[in-house]
Amino acid sequence: MLRAAQITIADRVADIGSGDGRFVIGAARLGAQAVGYEINPFLVWISRLKIRFLRLQDLAQIRWANIWHVNFSGYTVVLLFGFPYMMKRLEKKLRYELPKGARVVSFAFTFPTWVPETAEKGVYLYINE
Fold first, then answer.
1. Are strands 118-120 and 123-127 parallel, antiparallel or unpaired?
2. How far apart are CA 23 and CA 113, in angstroms?
3. Is the pTM higher than 0.90?
4. What secondary structure does DSSP assign to 44-56, as a single string?
């Protein structure tokens, strides 16, 4: 997913449903500012410990949040593993909030009307227009 997003040091990355923080950590290791959004407090705690242990606090953070209450307008890259029931609503939210040219990488599930730029091994790259 990180490779598909072509993350650079200039990017600000959001990971929706960040789980154990692996993609947030990966983006931070590439030099990008990365924020993970996770609703499970145990996974938030685990992720924050990993980030602290790796001394990546300046580049990576995890927020305990409901994504429907987050504004994604400041991000250039969004990573997600969404479930089918949420993809329609999430498509509308991201297309409205993200700046033009922002990259969205989805694993496993596609958006209903947004056509991906690339699709390989279940990883879909979208560019906001």
1. antiparallel
2. 26
3. yes
4. HHHHHHHHHHTT-
Instruction: Give Cβ neighbours of residue 1 (< 8 Å, ≥ 6 apart).
Output: 23, 79, 105, 107, 123
CATH number of 2-127: 3.40.50.150
Give the closest residue to 32 by CA, choosing from 3, 74, 60, 55: 60
Task: Measure CA 38 to chain center.
Answer: 11
pLDDT in tens, 117-128: 999 999 999 999
Give me 26's structure tokens. Answer: 């990966």
pLDDT per residue over 8-24, tens digit each?
999 999 999 999 999 99
- Where are the domains positioned within the chain? 2-127
Longest C-alpha distance within the chain, in Å?
41
> Is residue 18 within 8 Å of residue 80, measured between CB atoms?
no
